[in-house]
Design goal:
It contains 28 helices and 12 strands. It is an alpha/beta fold and 707 residues long. The strands form 2 sheets. It has a 10-stranded mixed β-sheet, sandwiched between helices. Strands 1-2 form a two-stranded antiparallel sheet. It is elongated and about 95 Å long.
Length: 707
């Protein structure tokens, strides 16, 4: 039967099974072959698409199945750019992004207009549309740059932010020129366009997060959560088209809308990246490659001339913009090259604008040939532009990104840094498994290769069913970690008591951080408080975190962080702060600090070193803290730094913090963090911490901890 099918095989291949097999074979083999010769595989996928496409060997046609998966891949690229952007860095660099967007829009536009109007003698509207083709760019290399671990580099952040602005401006020019060519540009046109764009932005940025937060609270199924994300990408893209702008802008805005709800260390983020990088994005590259028709450049010298002008305007303009950005903000040469590499690729918006202009017919020649807004020479030239610009983008971006990543690694190795943390997560019931693992992944420092240990203690008097239950809990913990590409070490231990077993594991595994999950029904019971002060807190070299979870941690938008006076005198103060910083960075949540003036100065110095979105409020009377806790909203969490483990951290006029939380049973997630009181670091460093006047030494500690 198979032989009969092969004998009757025609080209292009119509059999969906064979067609999909060929496409998967390309996606598998091209990266494996090109990685050996140090050529970016996305370039190989473009070339492979040209070879097997309708203008090459004609093995495959660019039918609806290729277009759909390719379109999803393009939307995925823009969605990931918005989803992975660090909102703290984005707000910090917003003026830099705006400046870059002006440079990268104006420089190619001017070159393109000169080429179109004065060299190619296009009409004024055609010249303006022609020039706008080169102002936009596609972040085609973003997934590769992100995989190198430099997504939070200022150059990457500036480029991603600028991409959104310049693409919107380019597509706005397209909308205006199309309206002008059809005689529709008037007051009504501008009002309709402005209102629709504002309405689109408000719906996606304000309504989408509310819907997503509700969905993630109500639905725990991982497959449903992933499908929901894809639905939101397409919905935002459709709304963008209805608003009169391109779908890629909608996908980018969807990423921004869900940015705070999908932690970067979560299993959901890992699924999103995996499916996109494995399937959809490669299909997009192949589908773009299928558009390349090399014969068009042989048939017409005019096409080559138009293509040459397009290349100079696009590549030259992007290079000028990158150099201006580098000089303006005093970035390194590699960062300037990275900006050029990431912004030099023309694909999505350029192709969309060309196709729109090509399909607009202004009239007819004497021979009856259609007069198009953008002629076929521009169409064919745009295909060559896509191929060459993506090639340059791949080589320049990857080479500079690799040098930046290598330099970051060398600085980390050469400089004084914290040892890898060993985080212990005791789990005694299945309900707490996912909550504890998710918190463990948030507080770990990814660049330090921190390790997670899931522990289940079986008392000696328990029966065989307890051991089986422990195996199920630990197996679930390991799977949850694996889903986020994080290794979780499972420990099942038989011991006389839970506290004694935990303390023994702390010694055996050199544990640096202990996370204890609070039972939401029992809370701070008498027996728990006894175990706390006579057991857990006796490990003075370990940071202790008490965690109460009433909702998924990804749905917490902001944390109120309470830091009592003189907390910085604790040896473990800065490492405890690092856990809070990691939660904010990995979950994209913001921090609202309530503390004293002297601690606020230290926090603001840390913000300059490691940006997170934060606000500060001075507390002079600690009776105000009870009111702060009572005023927490449903999407807020609470973090309290307990500054002295030998007694309660602070005392309000009526209650201790634990008594207050126990009696009020607030409906919010909260963490109580007890910094370690004995450190392995040398005595001079501890004396520097205790001497709060020595801000130079405090600066060294900030440099060491917040790398």
């Amino acid at each position: 039967m198979i032989l009969v099918s092969i004998q009757h095989l025609t080209f292009p291949v119509e059999d969906p099974l064979i067609k999909f097999f060929i496409e998967l074979l390309i996606i598998l083999l091209v990266p494996l072959l090109l990685n050996k010769i140090k050529i970016p595989h996305l370039l190989g996928l473009l070339v492979a698409g040209a070879v097997v496409g309708p203008y090459g060997l004609n093995l495959l046609s660019r039918d609806s199945s290729v277009v759909v998966t390719g379109t999803t891949g393009l939307l995925y690229i823009m969605f990931l750019a918005g989803l992975e952007i660090d909102m703290g860095d984005f707000k910090k660099n917003k003026w830099k992004s705006i400046t870059f967007s002006i440079y990268t829009f104006v420089a190619p536009f001017v070159l393109g207009f000169v080429g179109g109007y004065y060299l190619l003698h296009f009409s004024l509207p055609t010249s303006i549309l022609f020039a706008s083709l080169f102002s936009s760019h596609t972040l085609i290399v973003y997934p590769l740059v992100s995989n190198l671990g430099i997504a939070k580099n200022p150059a990457v952040n500036i480029t991603v932010g600028g991409t959104m602005i310049t693409d919107v401006l380019s597509l706005l020019v397209l909308a205006v020129i199309v309206g002008l060519s059809q005689g529709d540009v008037g007051a009504a046109f501008w009002i309709k366009l402005s209102v629709s764009m504002i309405a689109f932005a408000m719906v996606v940025l304000l309504l989408f997060p509310l819907i997503a937060r509700w969905f993630f609270k109500q639905v725990g199924d991982k497959i449903s959560q992933y499908i929901f994300v894809v639905v939101m990408i397409y919905l935002a893209s459709i709304l963008a088209e209805l608003a009169g702008i391109e779908s890629i802008i909608g996908a980018f805005f969807a990423g921004l809308a869900l940015n705070r709800l999908i932690p970067h260390t979560s299993s959901l983020m890992n699924r999103i990246e995996f499916v996109g990088n494995a399937i959809f994005i490669p299909f997009f590259l192949i589908s773009v490659g299928m558009l390349i028709d090399f014969s068009a450049f042989i048939k017409s010298w005019e096409t080559l001339g138009v293509a040459a002008i397009m290349l100079v305007a696009s590549i030259g303009g992007k290079y000028i913009a990158a150099i201006l950005t580098q000089k303006t903000f005093r970035l390194s040469k590699d960062e300037g090259k990275l900006i050029f590499g990431m912004s030099s690729a023309s694909a999505a918006a350029t192709l969309a604008a060309v196709m729109v202009g090509y399909n607009i017919i202004l009239g007819q020649t004497a021979e009856g040939e259609p007069i198009r807004l953008l002629n076929e020479h521009v169409l064919n030239g745009s295909i060559l532009l896509i191929l060459i610009s993506c090639t340059i983008s791949s080589f320049v971006a990857m080479s500079s990104a690799q040098r930046i990543a290598e330099e970051d690694r060398e600085n980390t190795v050469a400089g004084d840094k914290l040892p890898n943390a060993h985080i212990l997560l005791p789990i005694n019931n299945a309900e707490m498994t996912e909550k504890m693992i998710n918190l463990g992944m948030l507080i770990r420092t990814k660049s330090n290769d921190d390790q997670l240990f899931a522990l289940n203690i079986i008392s000696e008097d328990k029966n065989e069913s307890s051991a089986k239950n422990a195996e199920k809990i630990l197996e679930s913990a390991v799977k949850l970690g694996a889903a986020a590409d994080v290794e979780v070490h499972a420990i099942m231990r038989h011991d006389d008591g839970v506290v004694g077993g935990i303390n023994n594991v702390i010694k055996e595994k050199s544990i640096s951080d202990l996370v204890i999950g609070l039972d939401k029904e029992k809370g701070f019971s008498t027996s728990f408080m006894y175990n706390l002060y006579n057991g857990y807190l006796k490990n003075e070299h370990v940071n202790l975190i008490l965690y109460s979870a009433v909702q998924p941690i990804s749905t917490v938008k902001e944390y109120a962080v309470l830091i009592p006076p003189l907390a910085y005198r604790e040896p473990g103060f800065f490492e405890a702060l690092l856990k809070i910083w990691n939660i904010a960075r990995n979950s994209a949540s913001s921090l609202r600090f309530y503390t004293t003036e002297d601690i606020m100065q230290i926090l603001q110095r840390i913000i300059k070193k490691s940006a997170v979105e934060a606000s500060f409020y001075t507390i002079t009377d600690w009776a105000e803290v009870d009111e702060v806790i009572r005023d927490l909203k449903s999407d807020q969490g609470l973090v309290v730094l307990m500054a002295d483990r030998n007694r309660f951290s602070y005392r309000s006029p009526i209650h201790t913090i634990t008594q207050f939380l126990n009696e009020n049973r607030i409906g919010n997630n909260y963490l109580l963090i007890y910094p370690f009181t004995q450190s392995a670091s040398d005595a001079a460093e501890k004396r520097a911490v205790n001497n709060h006047q020595d801000f130079a030494e405090i600066g060294k500690l900030i440099q060491k901890v917040f790398r």
